[in-house]
Amino acid sequence: MTRLPQRPAGGPRRGKRPHPATRRRPLDGARLTAYDVLDGVTSRDAYANLLLPQLLRERGLDTRDAAFATQLAYGTLRAAGTLDAVLSGLVDRPLGELDPRVLDLLRLGAYQLIDLRVPSHAAVDTTVDLARAIVGTGASGLVNAVLRKVAAGGDRMQWLHALGGDREQQLALATDHPAWIVDAWRDALGGEEELEPALMADDAAPEVHLVARRVARAELVEESGGSPGPYSPFAVRLPGGDPGRLASVRSGRAAVQDEGSQLAGLLLTRAPLEGPDAAWLDMCAGPGGKAGLLAAVRPEGVRLTAADRAPHRADLVRQALRDEADVEVLAADGREAPWQAGSFDRVLLDAPCTGLGALRRRPEVRWRRTPEDVAPLVELQVELLASALASVRVGGVVAYVTCSPHTEETVGVVEVAAARDDVEVLPVAPLFPEVPGIARGDYGQLWPHRHGTDAMFMALLRRIR
Ligand SMILES: C[S@@+](CC[C@H](N)C(=O)[O-])C[C@H]1O[C@@H](n2cnc3c(N)ncnc32)[C@H](O)[C@@H]1O
Known about the structure:
It is a single chain. By secondary structure, this protein is an alpha/beta fold. The chain has 3 domains: about 20-160, Orthogonal Bundle (N-utilizing Substance Protein B Homolog, Chain A), CATH 1.10.940.10; about 205-255, 2-Layer Sandwich (Alpha-Beta Plaits); about 260-465, Rossmann fold (3-Layer(aba) Sandwich), CATH 3.40.50.150. The chain is built from 20 helices and 13 strands. Strands 5, 6, 7, 8, 9, 10, 11, 12 and 13 form a 9-stranded mixed β-sheet that branches. It has a 4-stranded antiparallel β-sheet with strand order 2-3-1-4. The protein is globular. The termini are far apart. The relative contact order is 0.09. The structure holds S-adenosylmethionine (SAM). Pfam families: Methyltr_RsmB-F, NusB.
């Protein structure tokens, strides 16, 4: 560590105090934690929603600093596209040629200046301190010079104006979405009318949603200080905070789960069914969010089988179902089912997908995903849905669910199955009369701007012969 310049004996003389900029300030804990999240995402492909809570726990930041670190980390990750557009005009080489640590620091500083309007001396000085400590003195000079130019350019509105571009580019920049995701949302929404509010809502920090599994919802409301969710009878919404501190969450009687995911799980339970109703399958169950809810709400006598291809995800399901009787957890590929064909009455297929509907909770995913990811996922989804239909008895139901509204992964996949002569589509909206605006044709679609949930898609299919 660099040592402070030594004062002459007898203390500083008047007019000879060291310049404040040469003194070392302690690093700001919230900003350092936010930087460490950005660095984990950049250099180790970490997931911010897993890394951040771990760092907050380890470092014991107080509530205020933890909230600021969260805002900085998530906000910077969400806004990376716009921040890079600003920064690329101010750096004398392509951003990809910068030391990745310097780029993350520039993004962190620029986010504070442009989006949070943190006074420029605080945003610049603290980022320069981080640069000096993490990368070195040379980097701190570059960070200082670039961030001063960012500050001089004004706030987000002024920067968007300066960046220019057509309406499409402006929408992508203003809402922090890559252009191909803007297109996918437009397509799923059926046009322009709701596009901007939908993308804006997808760019906002989400509330925390809890699910009351084995505790009365009123009790969880009381314990958490939240309010009942408007749609799922098990949902509690909180403006923020660390739900891991709640006794109900620690004991597994409640869990963190988006209210839209709760509805997607409940869809399976609401489908009308004739004949036996004793065997349910959750075919892609890891980490066990929907399996946990299904286990809690199933009628007496229903056996729940939950499978996941990834053994470590199957272990997480086992953990989520640890206190439930009459459940079986398998590490199994749904396409090579180890169970007998036609052996289930209800099957949930919560398919692996691009996650374009859950970007609020996984802020870096929008920049990680590419349009090339879609086709291989669609191929897998079609195969899994065929397998789900083979796993259900004649007369039984399959709920097909994705946390993506992308038309190819949703309507496109279901239409392949619905074209078969042994399958019929059951309309979703009548099963959710309490959820206005859920219909997407015969399917269900939730949206952050309409429902305050992730953009979950759901479809219900019956084997008719
Ligand atoms: C959207 S996540 C499921 C989320 C889960 N239902 C929940 O609510 O917590 C999709 C899961 O599918 C699993 N998966 C991917 N391919 C699979 C396959 N061929 N068979 C079974 N599971 C698969 C992934 O490991 C992942 O855990």
